[in-house]
Amino acid sequence: MIQMRSIVKRYGEGETAVEALRGIDLDIAPGEFVAIVGPSGCGKSTLMNLTGCLDQPTSGQYLLDGQDVAHLEDEELSHVRNAKIGFVFQSFILLARTSALENVELPLMYAREQLDGRDRARTLLEEVGLGERTHHLPTELSGGQQQRVAIARALITDPSILLADEPTGALDTRAGLEVVAILQRLNAQGRTIVVVTHDLALAEHARRIIRLDDGAIAADEPVHAPRDAEAELAAMAAEVAQP
């Protein structure tokens, strides 16, 4: 599904040029759950932006479902994003004066697809545990609930790939685990999940961890026994319930 060969991303020209990515070779198969980790400035966000067709490499080849998207025009990239990729960000990016239901529907306006949009949005909110919060504004929701709205919004166009950039960075431990549990359920349903994070605890819930260092892949390893977010939530609930 995702194939990158010799991907370079350079900012600036001449002596002041900075290489954010230096010759990335990467394959992500359909249905994987991958965490991309590394220190600040290592190229994680740049790699996420390229993977999500939000930016283009300076050089190299990027095949997405067999299509070379590395050097497409902006309109073509927009079409690819709308058709194949959903995004979840640390800051939620919800419209403040718009209900949860309307926030989830929003991508359909850009995709010019309105048929059954409201029913689909309502179903997705129910699937992330917010069936009773459909008409609440973001300010009436907790941070964890807002992130779940953002996940539902990312899924409204039924993308095959979900990209999440620090999805638990603004959440407390319990709310973060609730979000990770949703990501694990989506992955179990066959959706490809790619998470960028500095949080190794979150990364350990993935099935594969890619470590970046100074714009290059320093390690790429499977997680043989991923942590189970649902089980951790259950253990937290049991601990609270103890007299």
Task: Explain what you see.
By secondary structure, the protein is of the alpha/beta class. 36% of the residues lie in helices and 26% in strands. It contains eight helices and ten strands. It has helices at residues 44-51, 74-84, 100-110, 117-127, 143-155, 173-188, 200-203, 229-241; strands at residues 2-11, 18-28, 33-37, 59-64, 67-68, 85-89, 161-165, 192-196, 208-213, 216-222. A six-stranded mixed beta sheet has the order 6-7-8-3-9-10, sandwiched between helices. A four-stranded antiparallel beta sheet has the order 2-1-4-5, with helices on one face. α6 (173-188) links the parallel β7 and β8 (192-196). The model has no long low-confidence stretch (mean pLDDT 93).
* End-to-end C-alpha gap: 50 Å
Count of helical stretches: 8
> How many E strands?
10
Query: How much helicity do the residues have?
Result: 25-40%
The biggest sheet, with number of strands, parallel, antiparallel or mixed sense and barrel status, is: 6 strands, mixed
H/E element sequence: EEEHEEHEHHHEHEHEEH
Oligomer: single chain
Task: List segments where confidence is low: pLDDT < 50 over at least 5 consecutive residues.
Answer: none
What order do the helices and strands come in, and which of them pair?
Layout: E1 2-11, E2 18-28, E3 33-37, H1 44-51, E4 59-64, E5 67-68, H2 74-84, E6 85-89, H3 100-110, H4 117-127, H5 143-155, E7 161-165, H6 173-188, E8 192-196, H7 200-203, E9 208-213, E10 216-222, H8 229-241
Keywords:
alpha/beta, 6-stranded mixed β-sheet
In short:
It contains eight helices and ten strands.
